[in-house]
Amino acid sequence: MVAPAMDRTVKTASATQKLTMAKGLNMGLRAAMEADPKVLVMGEDVGKLGGVYRITDGLQKDFGEQRVLDTPLAESGIVGTAVGLAIRGFRPVCEIQFDGFVFPAFDQIVSQLAKLHFRSQGRVKMPVVIRIPFGGGIGAVEHHSESPESYFAHTAGLRVVSCSNPLDAYWMIQQAIECDDPVIFFEPKRRYHERAQEVDLSVPPQPLFSSRVLRQGSSATLVCYGPMVRTCLDAATAAAEDGIDLEVIDLRTLSPLDLDPVFASVRKTGRLIAVSEAPRESSLTAEIATRVQQECFYSLEAPVLRVTGFDTPYPPSKLEDDFLPDLDRVLHAVDRSLAW
Amino acid sequence: MTRTTSRPRRRREQDPTPSGTEDPEVLLGHYRRMLLVRRFEERAGQEYTRARIGGYCHLNLGEEATVVGLMAALEPTDYVFTSYRDHGYALARGVDPGRVMAELFGRATGVSKGWGGSMHLFDVDTRLLGGYGIVGGQIPLATGAALAVAYRQGTEVVLCHMGDGATNIGAFHESLNLASLWRLPVVYVVVNNELGMGTPVERSSAEPELHRRAAAYRMTGERVDGNDVLAVRDAARRAVERARRGEPTLLETMSGRLRGHSVVDPARYRTPAERDRLAQADPVARLRGQLLAAGVLTEQAAEALDAEVGQVVEAATEFAEHSPHPEVDTLFDHTHATPVPGETRRLPADPLFPEDQ
Ligand SMILES: Cc1ncc(C[n+]2csc(CCOP(=O)(O)OP(=O)(O)O)c2C)c(N)n1
Ligand SMILES: [Mg+2]
């Protein structure tokens, strides 16, 4: 029996550390591989090179080529093989190099990975994690800056999460690997190498499929995830200078959504702005708005507003600043909500 | 119909005359185009480092003989699809270097009006039907374009370029099967630089002699020295001729990538010995040496050519630099071909409309 991630809290003096998100993920993967020999890592250039973002750096050296597999360029093959491994009791962690490259594997994810537990009526479990660096802000282009999370959240049988900070990255990747359902794990690539944060690894993590209030406030609520969490926290800091007191909630789990903290917050503030880089149409922010207006109809002082990417393909780097939601756009929406 | 030939990997020792029967003007033309690709790509690398080019930027450095040889085998009416490593193909196809550089700079005068960038060059006039950033993405599309030619009983041919890594993705196999089954006028070209991003061919392809994969589809497969412009051109010509008769080919060209996978890759996985080997095989230096030895080119003429090509690249860069960025609101112009009712085209600074919720 493998000890759960919860029990892997660090009890020694090294419990506090400075971590970047990239380092947190790397350490989390390492801890999961140490705890359970059934955990395998596979993907393009994940072994010798350590992945394009070096998230799997050093793992092949330490765990061997059998557990950290450099695959050919074949996303469908990677994910399909992982499904087969999972049928036989392994816990594969697949790396997709960039968001836009997951689509050759989309068939395997939607048709097999998401459905096998149902189809086998529980006889096979699908503890597969698919790690996807996602979102923009790195000066890249189409295929390298996209936010495809809604496609996956729309598919029953999958679980979808996104980390927003180094400590969550460390724990969430371990918890995802431990989950007996397939988890699509979205990593905000532009936050990988941001300033390291002091973290305390002796504190047990909160459950994976739960959201978290990051900042208490009374004027309005910002709900966000992944790369937009930093943006929203910065917006809240800026708004505070104008006497506007924003509450910020990091969703962390995108499917299933954990909206109870959001409902509680909206009952308090009366206003909600949902922030995401993804295009707007039929997106997660639409789902959030629907559920909030159902649950909090009498508490709402303004319609739920959204700050999102546009319903266009992702633009080239020189124009991405015009595309991505930023602090100004978030504050602009806050103003509109307050002025309603 | 199945013919799979295996040429030796090692290039021939420098033979003084590339081909005794070749018209000197033609040779000089090939050399000039190779030089243009070389200088253009070197400049693109520099401009990228200076942050005047954004996104990702994959260069054809080391592949000049392949690029020029392949394009020399085509008629202007033929079609070309490429991977994201596409700059040289556009240049050799005759697209104005200024419009290519402007696209890399993301300017409105670029071949894709600045909205495509380095990986997504597109030029209908020269029938360059796109560079593609998804590995293997172009292969089924090229196959479809060939089907369109066959359907209309046309005489055009489609050339589909890809890297070695791309032969491991399903779309490659699906496409080759279709093309052979339906006898399509298409030439698939695998530019084998022996590396995907950092993974060597032997570690990613069960049949590392990639041209042999053609056998699975009863297609002709051929391997050629990608550093030899005439060898590439002649092999491509044979393939194009077959394609016009409805016989697709898988042509594999062998050449080294002189730099990293993209401009940002320092290629640390390369040993000094490998670097030396690559420098030795440099196709531009090799042809230059051959042409000088054969008396087709004099030192003086070579220098003049250097200067001329240098100026073309300089002018292209200046053109790019002084071109306007696309207007931000043109972002919304071409997502759909037909108007979308109620579509929001509002940008952050625009006036507010109540429907924007
Ligand atoms: C479907 C897909 N998966 C992964 C990538 C990331 N990627 C870009 S280029 C590349 C290596 C391709 O190698 P090869 O086909 O040999 O072409 P080369 O770059 O050597 O010309 C990879 C893995 C991608 N662009 N598309
Ligand atoms: Mg290659």
From TrEMBL, chain A:
Q: Which GO terms describe its molecular function?
A: magnesium ion binding; oxidoreductase activity
Q: Which CDD domains does the record match to this protein?
A: TPP_PYR_E1-PDHc-beta_like
| SMART domains linked to this entry | Transket_pyr
Protein origin, superkingdom: Bacteria
UniProt keyword Oxidoreductase present? yes
Q: Which cofactor names does the annotation list?
A: thiamine diphosphate
Keywords, alphabetical: Oxidoreductase, Pyruvate, Thiamine pyrophosphate
- Name the Pfam families for this protein: Transket_pyr (PF02779), Transketolase_C (PF02780)
**Keyword Oxidoreductase attributed:** yes
Transketolase-like pyrimidine-binding domain span: 19-194
The record ties this protein, via InterPro entries, to: THDP-binding (IPR029061), Transketo_C/PFOR_II (IPR009014), Transketolase-like_Pyr-bd (IPR005475), Transketolase_C (IPR033248)
Q: What is this protein called?
A: Pyruvate dehydrogenase E1 component beta subunit
Q: Which organism is it from?
A: Goodfellowiella coeruleoviolacea
From TrEMBL, chain B:
* Keyword field: Oxidoreductase, Pyruvate, Thiamine pyrophosphate
Q: Which reaction does it catalyse?
A: N(6)-[(R)-lipoyl]-L-lysyl-[protein] + pyruvate + H(+) = N(6)-[(R)-S(8)-acetyldihydrolipoyl]-L-lysyl-[protein] + CO2
Question: Per its UniProt record, what Gene3D superfamilies does this chain match?
Answer: 3.40.50.970
Instruction: Supply the enzyme class, top level.
Output: oxidoreductase
Instruction: Give positions of region: Disordered.
Output: 1-24, 326-357
State the InterPro entries in the record: DH_E1, PDH_E1_Alpha_Subunit, Pyrv_DH_E1_asu_subgrp-y, THDP-binding
Q: Which domain of life is it from?
A: Bacteria
Example of a GO MF term? magnesium ion binding
Q: Which cofactor does it need?
A: thiamine diphosphate
What Pfam family is a match for this entry? E1_dh
Residues forming the Dehydrogenase E1 component domain are 32-328
Give a GO biological-process term.
pyruvate decarboxylation to acetyl-CoA
Q: Where is the composition biased (Basic residues)?
A: 1-11
In the Enzyme Commission scheme, what number(s) does this protein have? Answer: 1.2.4.1
Q: What segments bear the compositional bias annotation Basic and acidic residues?
A: 326-336
Instruction: State what this protein does.
Output: The pyruvate dehydrogenase complex catalyzes the overall conversion of pyruvate to acetyl-CoA and CO(2).
Q: How does it assemble?
A: Heterodimer of an alpha and a beta chain.
Stated name of the protein: Pyruvate dehydrogenase E1 component subunit alpha
Q: What is the lineage of its organism?
A: Bacteria, Bacillati, Actinomycetota, Actinomycetes, Pseudonocardiales
